[in-house]
Amino acid sequence: MFTIEKTVQALIERFQASNWQPIMLTIRATGDTVTVTPCFYGDKLPEKPSDCEYFLMDCPGILLNGCDRIEEVADTLNHFKAIKTKDAQDKVALHEFYKNKLDGVSDQDWTAMRTISKALYDMWQERKETRWEDFLQEVKPVLSRQTKQSFAAIDKAIELSDNFDYYADTFKGLYGYYPRLHVNAEEPA
Hints:
Elements: H1 4-17, E1 23-26, E2 33-39, E3 54-58, H2 70-78, H3 80-101, H4 107-126, H5 132-147, H6 151-175
Antiparallel strand pairs: 1-2, 2-3
Helix pairs in contact: 1-2, 3-6, 4-5, 4-6
């Protein structure tokens, strides 16, 4: 494995040879192609990496974070195989989470979750200074009357909402966009 310093030097040489245009690198350990794009302002080409504002990184099938410094790019490239392995493990774990927590949820439960979540959000906007757990205990009776749901149904809807939020945020972190679930749930009024 290259040291960060050697990788940085190789990147600088490649950027200079490409006139600071995007470069494509093949990762030997995995065979993947990573495109690194230096980002800078103005028409003047950078003279050194610190003249770049940011480095975008792209690789099909894996979402890579961009980097502020060329040393971070070098570190990502040097550890690419481990990053790709962890990405694959995270995707499998997220799929398992979906199967265990969200797959098979009824349309009725989705509708209840959306109704309760909207009501909670509206109430929370007025009382943000209260701790979330305290807020929930205070508003459950009001929410139960308002939505005509039992405390158990409210707890179930909140858990479903939390699970969906976790799934959606993690999905976006792994794939770069939010998931789209096809549900026949009614939108809250």
